[in-house]
Specification:
The complex is a heterotrimer of chains A (about 80), B (about 90) and C (about 130).
Chain A: H1 2-27, H2 30-55, H3 62-82
Helix pairs in contact in A: 1-2, 2-3
Chain B: H1 3-28, H2 33-54, H3 63-86
Chain C: H1 7-16, H2 20-31, H3 39-46, H4 50-62, E1 66-68, E2 76-78, H5 83-95, H6 97-105, H7 118-125
Antiparallel strand pairs in C: 1-2
The chains are: A mainly alpha (about 80), B mainly alpha (about 90), C mainly alpha (about 130).
């Protein structure tokens, strides 16, 4: 059950990333690129939780998961600060 | 939880709060209600990470930990649906 | 390297063209100058999404390179007084594609084809269908 939740979170995040990427291609507004990467990162973070608990339970991926989340958050902050005009 | 992981989650939480503040600012500048939703969603994510760090037994499996995460993404979905209904 | 591109074509690109997609839409409309197009038709023809095509058409109309009708959905048509210029641009694009692409994307961001507010663009990105 919790794994389903994380998968759904990953899908939502991916959806946001795709919408932003599509718009970036048309407008070339950099903020959209950085935000898109952030959402990809959040999706990966959610997928890694599933991987951590189901596929590789013997390995502790928590440091990797946390690192991916932080990188994602750094990207969106960079975009919001640098490229929001 | 290792110190490194602890630090990484704390930093993510702080960053998420900051991102939320930006989104709140955009909402207040008379723009889209969507920005308010994003602010709340990113703050929910921050709360999710703070919970993992602050509550000793909380692993992601724990229902209140992933409940907050679910709320964050559910908010995003709701915001997007609302945006498309409006326009 | 960009010396290979004629001065008038350079000027045109720097003044008006923000992306390869925009150029493709422009060239498509000028290939059949008598014909009108909707964003949907342009999207199918160029195998891009309608949303993007709509944005490019609006940008081109804003620069008066194409004309928009008042229907819903709007039908776009090439502004024929630019035909010779666009033909020249299209020819150069065929002959010097790499140089042209480099030129298009070398434009400094603040001279963008359509000055876009990034925050507005962020919000608009989440409109799933552009014509909503």
């Amino acid at each position: 059950m919790p794994e389903t939740i994380f998968a759904l979170c990953a899908l939502t995040s991916l959806g946001c990333a795709l919408l932003l990427l599509r718009s970036y291609r048309a407008t070339r507004a950099r903020l959209l690129l950085w935000s898109s990467i952030c959402f990809v990162g959040l999706a990966i973070n959610n997928i890694l939780v599933c991987v951590d608990f189901i596929i590789l339970p013997q390995v502790d991926l928590s440091a990797l998961r946390a690192a991916v989340a932080l990188i994602a958050i750094l990207f969106i902050n960079f975009g919001l600060i640098w490229d929001s005009k | 939880m290792s110190d490194v992981t602890h630090m990484l989650y704390s930093a993510s939480a702080m960053g998420s709060v900051t991102a939320g503040i930006f989104f709140l600012h955009f909402w207040r500048r008379g723009r889209d209600r969507l920005f308010l939703v994003f602010a709340l969603a990113f703050w929910a994510l921050a709360l999710n990470w703070i919970t993992l760090v602050a509550v000793p037994i909380a692993a992601e499996r724990h229902h209140f930990a992933y409940g907050i995460r679910l709320a964050a993404f559910a908010l995003l979905l709701a915001g997007i649906i609302d945006k498309n209904r409006r326009h | 390297m960009t010396d290979a591109i004629p001065a008038d074509v350079r000027r045109f690109i720097l003044d008006h063209i923000g992306s390869v997609e925009m150029l493709n839409v422009l060239m498509l409309l000028f290939k059949q100058p008598g014909r009108t197009w909707t964003a949907n038709e342009v999207g199918s023809e160029l195998r891009t999404n309608e949303w993007s095509a709509d944005l490019q058409l609006q940008a081109l109309a804003a620069r008066e390179l194409v004309r928009a009708s008042t229907d819903t959905p709007p039908r776009y048509q090439a502004e024929t007084r630019h035909a010779a210029q666009v033909a020249s641009v299209a020819r150069t694009y065929e002959e010097r594609r790499v140089a042209m692409i480099t030129l298009i994307y070398s434009r400094p961001d603040d001279v963008a084809a359509e000055p876009v507010d990034p925050v507005q663009a962020f919000a608009d990105a989440f409109k799933i269908r552009k014509d909503k």
